[in-house]
Amino acid sequence: MLFLRQIRAHGFKSFADPTTLDFTHDMIGVVGPNGSGKSNITDAIKWTLAEQSAKSLRGSKTDDFVFSGSSDRKAADFAEVTLVFDNQKNIFSTVDTEIVEITRKFVKKTRENEYYINGQRVKTRDIQDIALESGLTKSSLAIISQGTISNFAEAKPEARREIFDDAAGVAKYKKRKKETLIKLIRTQENLNRLEDITSEIGRRLPSLEKQAKKAELYKEKIKELQSIEISILVKDIKTIKERIQDLSSQRSVFQEKIKTLSNEINLSQEEFDLMVNDSSSSEMEISQLNNKFQEIIQRIGNLKVKKQEVEAREASKIDTKDADEFKAIQIKKQFEETRVQLSSEKDKAFRLEAQINELKEQYDYLSSKYNDIYDEIETIRKNISRIQIQKEHNENQRQSTQYGANQGADNVIKHASNIGGVVGTLLSLVKVEQAYQTAISVVAGASMNSVVMKSNVDVKKAVEFLKRNNAGRCTFLPLDSLNPSVIQGAQRAAIENARGFIGIANELVAIEAKYQTALDYALGTIIVVDTYDSATALAKNINYRFNIVTLEGDRILPHGAIVGGKTRSQNIFSSQSQTQSNSEELEQTLVRLDAKEIEKTRELNDLKLQRDQLRDNLNDNQAIIRNAKQNIEQYRVKTNELSEDYRILTGNDLLGNNQDDSNESESIKFSRQIAKLENERDEIQTRLNLLSTSRNKYVDRQRELNEQNSGKRAELDHLKDQSAAVSSELSALQERYIAILKRLAEGYGLTEEAALEMETDAIENEQYARERILVLASELKDIGNINIDAIEEYKVEKERFDYYDLQVKEIREAAEKLQSIIMDIDIAMETQFKKVVDDVNAALPEAFAKLFGGGTAELIYTDPENILETGIDIKVNPPGKKISNLNLLSGGEKSLVALSVLFSILKVRPLPLVILDEAEAPLDPANVERFARYIKLFTSETQFIVVTHREGTMENCDILFGVTMETKGITKIVKIKLVDAKEMVSKED
Predict the structure, then answer these.
(1) Per the domain annotation, does 956 fall within a domain?
(2) Fewer Cβ in 10 A, N or C end of the chain?
(3) What is the mean pLDDT of residues 509-529?
(4) Predicted confidence band at 985 (pLDDT cuts at 50, 70, 90)?
C-alpha cells in the first residue's frame, strides 16, 4: 500500500538544503552510516505530525530542530517539513481531498510554530486529531524502533497495554474521557462555588424580603398619602383659580365702573364749571342789555314827547282845512308808519333766515363731528377692554410662570424707596445660560421670588410695612445673616467624579459677588447632571442626600422621590422676560388709549354743549322768524287797507305813488325813529328773554349736575368699598395659592402644570380625604424605620438567587451528563480493548511460529476483573523450551517475542504507515531474514519505511535510499542500489 508519497524538508535538523524524498513503493529502505542523519527522517515525520516532546525527537529545546550551521554554512532561520499523503482510501476522513499535504514550520524570530493542511493554516489540535484518526501517533505501532522492541519486551504489564490501547482506538476515548473528566472537575468546582453563593444569598433573602415588603408598604402608603394630598392641593388650586378668576372679573368690572363713574363725575364737574361760566356770561350780557333797554325806553319816551309837540303844532295849522284832507294826511301818516314797520320786519326776517341757515349748517357739522368722535370713543373703549383682558392674561401667566407672583414681594419692590435696603427679587439679580435655564427653573421655583435685603433691620421694616398695609407675605434673604449650606469636602469630591456631573447649581448661575450668599442659600445644595441615568446613578451613590436635576428638568429629591416629565412652560427666565416685555408694552398702549379716551370724551362733551346751544338758538330764531312773518303779513294787509282808504279820499294810490320824502312831515319822521327804536327794543327784549331762559337752564343744569354728582360720588364710594373687599379677598387667595404652590414645589418637587397634569383621583368627599390623610400618617408612623433600598436590593438578590439556582440545576444536569458520558466511554473502551486483545491472541500463535520457527505464545490479563486497568502479560514457549518468564529469554528472543506480538496487532488492526527504525538490530542473520520476509506479508495493507543496516532487510526492500553526510553536519539523500547499500554498510562495519 502506498500511503506516504513524499517528504520535503528544509532547515530541519541536518537538512540544511531543501531535500525531497519521493516514495513509490510499499517497502522503502533507508541505509547509511551512523551519524549521517538517517533517523532524522523519522524525526521529521514525527515533528510534522505535531509531536510536542523535544526529548522524543532527540532534542532538548525547539531550536535544536533548526539547522544550527556548520563550518562553512550559517544557521537556518527556520525549519519546515511537508508530508504528502495519498488519501484515496479516505484514511483522513476529515479532509475531503485525494492528496493531503501536512506542513509544520518553525520560525526562530517569531518563536511560532505554524501548521498547514493543504496550504490552509490550522491549529496544533487539528494535526493531532488527524494523526490520531489515522493511527500515526507516538504511542501507536506507526514508529517501531529498537528501543520500542526492547521496551515492549521488558515493560511491565500495565505499561505494555498502551500498545493495545492504541491498537484498539482507545486513545481517542481516553482523550475524550480525560477532557470530560476535566470538564466534570471544573463543573463540580463551579457547582460548589455556585452552591456557596446560592446558600449565602438564600440566607440573606428572608430578611431582605421582609425589609422590602415593609418598604413597599411604606411606599404604597406614601404614594396614597401624596396622591390624596396632591389631589386636595390640585382641587384647592382649581377652586382658588376659579374664585380668583371670578374675583378678578368682578374687580375689573368694579374698576371699569369706578373709572367710568370717575370720568362721568369729572365730565359733570367740567360741565358744571362751564355752566357757571356761561351763567356768569349770561348775567353780564343781561345786565348790559337791560341798561341798553332802559336807554332805548328813555329815548322812545323823549321822541314821543317831541312827536306830540309836533303833532300839536301841525293840528293847529290844519284847523282851517277840510276834514277830508286832514283825514287823508292821517291815513298817509299811518301808511308810512306801517310801511316802515313792514320794512323793518322784512329786514329782521331776512337776517333771521340767514342766521337759521348758518345755525343749521353749524348744527349739522357738529352732529357729524359728534357722531365721529362718539364712534372713535367706542373703538377706544373696545381696545382698552381688549388690552385689559390681555394684560390680565399676561399677569396670570406671569404669576403661573413664577409659581404664583408673590403679592408681598411685588408690594415690597414697588415701595422699595420707602422701606429701604431692598436689593430686588433673586430672579431679577441672576443671569442663567440658555443650557441651564430649564434645570434652574425647575429647582429654583418660588425661591426666585424671594426678596434680597441688605440686612435684618431692613427685613424688619419690610415685614412691618406688609403687616401695616395688609399687603401680603414674602420670603426675605438678608445678606448680613444668611448662613447657606453648600456641598464641599469629600462629598463634593465624590460628586465631581460622578458620570454626567455638570456642576452645583449656584456655580452655574451668574450673580454679583456681593449677592452670592443669597444664591448659595437658594441653590447651594442642588446638583446638575446631564441625563436621567446619570442622576439615578449619582443619587444612589450619595444615598439620596441632595437634590439632583437634569438638563431636561427631571429631579430626584432627597430620600428618593423622583419628579419627571415635561410641562408647557418650564423656563421662568425666558417666559418672565417675555411676559414682562409684553406687559410693559400693553401698559404703555393702555395709558395712551386712556389719555386719548379722556381727551375725546372732553371734546365730545364740548361738542354736545355747543350743539345743544345751537339747537336752542335755532329753535328760538325759528320762533322769532315765525312771529316776524306773521307781523309782515299783518303789516301788508294794513298797508293795502290804508292805501285803499287814501285812494278813495284823494284818488291817488299810495302803493304806486313814488313821492319825495322831503315833503314828509316832521311827525312822520319822529314816528319812523320811534318805530326803529321800538323794533330795537323788541329785539333786546327777545334777547333778554332768551338769555333769561338760558340762565335759568344753566341754573337748573347746575342743580341737576350737583344732584347727579352727589349720587355718583356715593355710588363711587360704594364701588371702591366693593373693589377693596374683592382685592382683599384676592390677596388672601393669592397668598393661599402661593402657599399651595410652595407646598407642591418643596414637598413634591412639582410645578403647578405638572401637578395638574398628574393622573390623580378626583376628591369627591374632601372630609373623608382629610381623615384618610391622618390615618395614613398614623400608619406610616407605626411602620417605623424602613430601608427604602431594600426593595431594589431584594429584587437584585432575588434575581441573583434565581439565576444562580437555575445555574446550579443546569450544572448538576451537566455533571450527570458528563458522568454518563464517562460511563459510556468506559464501556466503549472496555469493549474495544477486549476485542483487540482477543483478536491479537488469535493471530499471535501464527506470527510467533513464523518468527521463531515454531512454538506457542499467548496474551494474559493480569486483572481479568478490571479490563480498563489490567496489564498485559505474555506467555511464550519457544520451540523446544518451556519458559515461565520473558526475562529468561535472550535479547534476540525477546525481540522476536515483541515483534510477533506487534505484527499480530498490525494484522488485526492494520496501519497505513509503519516506520521500522533498526527494529531488527538485535536479531541474528537467520532471524533477520525471517523478519524481512514476514514484513512483506503486510505490504498490501501497510507501507513500511525501514531504517536498517542489515543485509537481510535491505535485500527485501523495494527501493533503497542512501543517507550520507559528505559535508559535516549536512545530510544528503540519494536512491541507491543494493550493492551500494551493502558497500555503505560494510564500510561502517
Answers:
(1) no
(2) C
(3) 90
(4) low
**Per-chain mean pLDDT for the chain:** 82
Total-model pTM: 0.43
Please indicate, yes or no, if residue 66 is contained in any of the structural domains.
no
User: Distance between CA 41 and CA 948 in Å, rounded?
Assistant: 13
Rounded to whole angstroms, the Cα distance separating 67 from 14 reads: 6
Q: Which has the higher per-residue pLDDT, 121 or 326?
A: 121
Residue 215 zone, left/alpha/beta (φ > 0; ψ -120 to 50; rest): alpha
DSSP states of 946-959: EE---HHHHHH-SE
Sorting pLDDT into bands at 50, 70 and 90, what band is 484? confident
* Residue 302 counted as an annotated binding residue: no
Strands laid side by side in the 27-31 sheet: 143-145, 913-917, 943-947, 27-31, 959-967, 970-976
Confidence of residue 113 (pLDDT cuts 50, 70, 90): very high
**DSSP assignments along 629-674, one per residue:** HHHHHHHHHHHHHHHHHHHHHHS--TTT----GGG--HHHHHHHHH
Q: How far is residue 526's CA from residue 487's CA, in Å, rounded to a whole number?
A: 9
CATH number at residue 576: 3.30.70.1620
Instruction: Determine the Cα–Cα distance for residues 659 and 653; give it in Å rounded to an integer.
Output: 11
Q: Which long-range contacts (CB under 8 A, 24 or more apart) does 149-155 make?
A: 149/894, 149/895, 149/898, 149/899, 149/902, 149/919, 149/922, 150/891, 150/894, 150/895, 150/898, 150/922, 152/898, 152/901, 152/902, 153/886, 153/889, 153/894, 153/895, 153/897, 153/898, 154/886, 154/887, 154/894
Set of cell numbers at residue 137: 501517533
Query: Are β-strands 143-145 and 476-478 bridged in parallel, bridged antiparallel, or unpaired?
Result: unpaired
Q: Give just the sign of the alpha carbon dihedral 354, 355, 356, 360.
A: positive
Q: State the pLDDT confidence band at 576, using cuts at 50, 70 and 90.
A: low
The whole-angstrom separation of Cα 111 and Cα 893 is 46
Asked if 854 contacts 879 with a C-beta cutoff of 8 angstroms, the reply is: yes
Cα–Cα distance between 684 and 300 in angstroms, integer?
A: 14
Check pLDDT > 50 for residue 28: yes
> What digits encode the pLDDT tens for the residues 737-753?
888 888 888 777 777 77
- The answer to the question of whether 38 is labelled as a binding residue is yes
Domain count, the chain: 1
**Cα(92)–Cα(100) distance, rounded to whole angstroms?**
8
Establish if 892 belongs to a structural domain.
no
Taking phi over 0 as left and psi of -120 to 50 as alpha, with beta for the rest, 560 belongs to left
Residue 34 assigned to a binding site: yes
Q: pLDDT higher for 121 or 981?
A: 121
How sure is the predictor about 957, in pLDDT bands with cuts at 50, 70 and 90? very high
pLDDT value of position 82: 97
> Helices (DSSP H) in 749-765: which residue ranges?
752-757
Q: Around Cβ 491, how many Cβ atoms within 10 Å?
A: 12
Read off the pLDDT of each residue in 504-532 and give the average, rounded to a whole number.
90
Q: What is the pLDDT of residue 968?
A: 86
Residue 102 binned pLDDT confidence (cut-offs 50, 70, 90): very high
301 is in an annotated binding site: no
Q: Is 37 annotated as belonging to a binding site?
A: yes
List, in sequence order, every residue forming a beta bridge with 103; answer none if it has no partner: 82, 116
Per-residue buried b or exposed e for 372-394, using 16+ beta carbons within 10 Å of the residue's own CB:
ebeeebeebbebbeebbeebbeb
- Classify burial at 236, counting beta carbons within 10 Å of its beta carbon; exposed 0-12, middle 13-18, buried 19 or more: middle
| Domain of residue 461, residue span | 401-581
Cβ-based burial of 707 (10 A; exposed 0-12, middle 13-18, buried ≥19): exposed
| Per-residue model confidence as pLDDT tens digits over 267-317 | 877 777 777 777 777 788 788 888 888 888 888 888 888 778 777 776 666
Beta bridge partners of 573: none
For the chain, what is the radius of gyration of the CA atoms?
69
Q: Let me know if residue 480 belongs to a domain.
A: yes
* Percentage above 90 pLDDT, the chain: 17
Residue 35 labelled as part of a binding site: yes
Are β-strands 959-967 and 78-86 bridged in parallel, bridged antiparallel, or unpaired?
A: unpaired
